[in-house]
Amino acid sequence: MRYIWENRWFLVPVLIFLMIGGLLAWLVPYGTEILFFNDFRYEPWNSLFHFLTQCGEAIAFVLFGIPLLFWKPRYVAVLALVGGLSMPLNFAFKHYMGVDRPITYFEKNIASKQPVLVPGVLLNRGQTSFPSGHSMAAFALFSLLGLMLPPKQRKWGLFFSTLAILTAISRVFLVQHFLIDIVVGAILGMVLSQVCWQILYPFTHPKALA
Questions:
Q1: What does the alpha-carbon distance between residue 87 and residue 66 come to, in Å, rounded to a whole number?
Q2: Are 178 and 33 in contact (CB under 8 A)?
């Protein structure tokens, strides 16, 4: 529980996001969240969310990992473990669940209103929608970074939570995932980072346990 409380600047806004997202996913018709953004898919939002979605990719782990090499080299092992586990775990969930991607879903339901697409975005098709891998990776990365912050810098967790939330929303905006995909992906990512952090805590904080 200590680790959870230390990360409260990250967790509080994220929990609000998850509660609202989960409630909307339960109440509104499936796919409505995709269509909601139809009226917003224009510049500069297209470019902004196209950029933000990269926070859930391997490049984000690399960019944040480089400063850790000079600041807290031990933390890089935790970051690498989280990044290395997030992809195969997500693929396993996707294979087991087999949920249609948004574009596949709407193509099958040709009578319904179709989503406006963002130019230049390569849409993923097939049955790999649930859960969102980008959301899982982003929330794993940024919740972990929140835990790594020194006590006097913990308020930066609010910045990390904002990045994680916007990364997840970008997946819906770009017609890559449904709302329930990003909510569950976010939860899985945070669970993964918390577990890895607690397991490797003795390695990253040897003096604290001496």
A1: 20
A2: yes
Instruction: Give yes or no for residue 1 having a pLDDT over 60.
Output: no
* DSSP element (H, E) containing 29: none
For residue 42, name the pLDDT band (cuts at 50, 70, 90).
very high
Taking the alpha carbons of 184, 186, 187, 191 in that order, is the dihedral positive or negative? positive
**For residue 92, what are the CA distances in angstroms to 33, 57, 87, 88, 132?**
25, 17, 9, 6, 12
H helices, E strands: number in the chain: 10, 0
Q: Are 189 and 86 in contact (CB under 8 A)?
A: yes
Kindly report the pTM of this predicted structure.
0.93
Domains, in order of start, for the chain = 2-116+123-204 (1.20.144)
* pLDDT (tens digit per residue) in 169-200: 999 999 999 999 999 999 999 999 999 998 88
